[in-house]
Amidohydrolase-related domain-containing protein
Amino acid sequence: MDISQDLRELSRVAFSYPAIDNHAHPFLREECKYAHPFEGLISEATGEKATRDATHTMACYRATAQLARLYGLGPGADWEAVKQHRKEIPYEKLCRMCMEPTRIQCILIDDGLGLPDRVYPYRWHDQFTGSPTKRIVRIEALAEDILKHSIEAQVSGEDGLSPGKLLHRFLTGLEAALIAAATDAEVAGFKSIACYRTGLDVSILTSLVEDTAVVHEVEQLLTRMSLIFLSNHPLRLAYKNLNDYVVNLTMRIAGQCGKPVQFHTGLGDNDITVTKSSPSHLQPLIKAYPNTKIVLLHSSYPFTKEAGYLTAVYDNVYLDFGEIFPFLSPDGQRQVVREVLELAPTNKIMWSTDGHFWPESYYLGTLQARQALYEVLESSVKRWELTPLQAVGIVKRALFDNANTLYNLGLEPQWTG
C-alpha cells in the first residue's frame, strides 16, 4: 500500500497546524536587545567561558544553519556572521520574521523573570498571535513581592519588625494574591521554580503556624530577609519550609479554582541541583493534591522517562516537551520525543518553546519541535505502528488541543486546512 499521500498529510499538519505555546517568556525591549549574550539562545550555560563552549555544540551548529537561511545568508555563514547580521535587521522586522513562520496562535507567558525594565509586558506579544496572550504567574516571584510589601508596610507602621506580625501579614497577603490570580481571566495558570530554589522534594505543609519550631524558624528567616531587603540587597526566597509552604498553598488554591500549576523540572542552568530536579521527587505532592493539574515542564530532561511514568499513572499530571528545542542535538530531540511517547498518554502531552528574550528562540523552538514530532511519527507510520490518522491526531493534540483543554482557553484553531 502506498502511504506517500498519507505522509504528505501528516507533514502538512505537523508543519502548519496552529500551536499553543504553553510556556514562554517575554521578548527583550528593543532598547535592551543586547542586554544578554545571544549564546543564551542555544545553551543554559552561564559565564563567558561556558557560553563560548556552547558555540561548539551540535545545537549551535544546527541553529546557525537555520538562522542563516532565515536571514538569507549563504550556507557558509558561521555563528558570528549570524550574530552580526541580526544587528542590521530593524527590531520589529526581526520579530515578525521570526514569529510569522511559527504559526503560534496563543502564548502563555511567565512574566516573572524579574526584569520588567528589560522585557515587554505580556500583552505586547498579541501582535504576533491570532489569540490573546495569557499570563502564567510565577509563584516564587509573587511571594517575594508580597514579602517586600509586607516589610515596607511593617517598618512604616507602629509594629517595626515584629517577626510574628510580619509572618501573619505575609501569609495573609500571599493567600489573597494567589486567590486574586487564580480568579483572574488573564491568568492561565501558575508556575513554580522550586527546582531552582530548594529542589523538587517539596514537603507536604498545610500550615506554617501549627508547629512552634517551624514558626520560630520562619520568623527568624523573615527577620533576616527584612534586614537584607532594607539594606537594598536583592530579596530571594530560598528557604525550604517557606518555599514548600508557598507551593502547597498554591496547589490548594489552584486546585479549587481549576488553574494548572507548572513546575520547572530537569534542564536548567547551573543554579539547579541536578539530583533534585527529577520530577520523581514530586510524587508525594502529586498524590496530596489529586484535584490540582500539574504540568512537568521542559520534558524533565534528562528525566523524561520518569516524567512519562508520572503522566501515565496519575490523572492530574501532564507533560510538556519544551526547552529541548534548540538546546539538544537533532538526535537528542528525537530521542526525547520518543521517550515522551513511550508511556505518556497522547492526550496529556503538550508543546512549548520556552522562548525568551530573543524572537529567534520562538522561531527555533517551533521549527525544530515540528520537525522532531513529524520525523518520529513518520517513522512509526512507516513501520505500521501507527495509522496516519492516529499520527495526525497526536500532532493536533500535542500542538494545540491538549493545552487548549487543560488551560480552559476556549480557542478554535485558526487553520484553513
